[in-house]
Amino acid sequence: MAKPYPYFVSLNEAISLCQETQIKLNSEIIPISESINRIVSTDIRAMVNDPGFDNSAMDGFAVIHSDTTSPPSKLSIIGSLMAGSSDNHKLSSGQAIRIMTGAPIPQGADSIIPIEACTVNGDEVILNQPSKPHFIRKLGENFAKGQIIFSPGEVMSPEKIALCAAAGVAKISVFKKLRIAVISTGDELKSLDQKLEHGQIYESNSYGLAALVSIYGHDATRFPNVVDDLDTLRNTLNKAAENHDCIITSGGVSMGDKDFVRILMEQEGEIKFWRVKMRPGSPPIFGSWNKVPIFGLPGNPVSSHVVFRAIVGKWLTSLTNSADINNRQINAILAEDIKTQEGFTTFRRVELFVEGDVTFARLKGHQGSGNIAGIAMSDGLTIIEPDEMGNKGDVCKIILL
Ligand code: AMP
Ligand code: MG
Q1: Over the stretch 12-66, which tens digit does the pLDDT of each residue have?
Q2: Going by CA atoms, what residue is nearest to atom 7 of ligand 1?
Q3: 250 lines ligand 1 (CB under 6 A)
Q4: Residues around ligand 2, an ion, CB closer than 5 A
Q5: Which ligand sits closest to the CA of 248?
Q6: Distance CA 198, CA 137 (A)
Q7: Under a CB-based contact definition with an 8 Å cutoff, are residues 301 and 251 in contact?
Q8: N-terminal to C-terminal alpha carbon distance within the chain
Q9: Which CATH number fits the domain 329-400, given the four candidates 2.40.30.10, 3.40.50.720, 2.40.340.10, 2.70.70.10?
């Protein structure tokens, strides 16, 4: 019987069906020191020029270039300038001023000679080379006061935080973090403080999924494991929906009799799609529970991880119009044939190696979707498109892990 929702869709369809569900994020103002991985929500403008004044890029001497064009040239040292100095020196032909990196260029000087190219004799210096105009860092050459340094959607990194400080920006407006519930389901799951009986395993998906949520700049709440029971699951989803912006479950979305996430969603939730043509990770379900977006990820540890990276991460970044910086890709040459299935997107775990100047990818570890060790030790995931074969020698996109 035809399903009343899109069933077994391509990965691209799944990604675009998710886009139809949008949530609006509020903003807050925070100090830059707390902004790592946070997402900028308004334009940020520089408060100062960088550099704020012409200054030396080297420890050496500030000189007049035309004095130095036929080395060796002898100049008299008339003073010295340190970083932070505001002394008002003026240089004339035949003179040099000792200068340190970051110190303002004195009036009259147009170039720098590094200390290594000089011989100092008391208050005289002999320049063994011509001086270098480009050793002067020019006023405003990096950015200008008032210039937009970041636009909404930018994800803060250590370098961007430092740039804010250099630009005199102490606080920035960022999107409030989404509160995302992470719920694992399965009778066999035990938490790390419990003893395992035969047939039981440590619950691991919620740790990986919560860490993924956090590298995407949001807050995860890890719920206690939910047993395979319809009422318990319903109660947990109701509770999660009360104070979360999104719910991510793992397990219970396949065709099994105890796959209660899927069964409950079919009976009482709203489904946007179920099952995706991807390997691994074909069972996911997406929709809403009490109007809160819900991603039902597969239970197999590799599958849940891959589906997050392939689908959930894309949705999260679309909400803030951000680049998916956790999904950096390179091209590599396949060093062996990789098993694919026509019409499916294939994410195999690979290691990368370089021969000559070519980067190759080969399978890493046993590729079962239950093998979390395999993905943990891999350098990347292949993205073999539905119409590609995955043959040895093919160019293949790799998501770097
Ligand atoms: P399911 O999707 O519920 O059929 O589970 C598929 C496989 O993933 C089974 O072998 C489960 O034991 C395993 N699994 C499900 N949830 C988790 C979890 N949270 N952590 C680790 N393994 C899991
Ligand atoms: Mg299960």
Answers
A1: 999 999 999 999 999 999 999 999 999 999 999 999 999 999 999 999 999 999 9
A2: 300
A3: yes
A4: 186, 251-252, 299
A5: 1
A6: 68
A7: no
A8: 40
A9: 2.40.340.10
Compute the distance between CA of residue 247 and CA of residue 265 in angstroms, rounded to an integer: 13
Averaged confidence pLDDT in the chain: 97
Helix (H) or strand (E) holding 17: helix 11-19
184 touches ligand 1 (CB under 6 Å): yes
What's the 201 CA to ligand 1 centre distance in angstroms?
9
Q: Looking at the predicted structure, is the pLDDT value of residue 1 above 80?
A: no
Domain spans of the chain, in order of start:
7-25+176-320, 28-46+148-175, 55-137, 329-400
Q: Which atom of ligand 1 is nearest to the CA of 300?
A: 8
Nearest ligand, measured from the Cα of 368: 1
Over the stretch 280-301, which tens digit does the pLDDT of each residue have?
A: 999 999 999 999 999 999 999 9
The pair phi, psi for residue 82, each rounded to 5°, is -100, 165
Q: Is the CB of 188 under 6 A from ligand 1?
A: yes
| Rounded Cα distance, 247 and 360, in Å | 38
Task: Tell whether pTM > 0.90.
Answer: yes
- Residue 2: pLDDT band (50, 70, 90) is confident
Q: Whose CA is nearest to atom 5 of ligand 1?
A: 299
Average pLDDT over residues 159-184: 98
Q: Tell whether ligand 1 has an atom less than 6 A from the beta carbon of residue 80.
A: no
CATH 3.40.47.10 fits 7-25+176-320, yes or no: no
- Rounded distance, CA 325 to CA 84, Å? 37
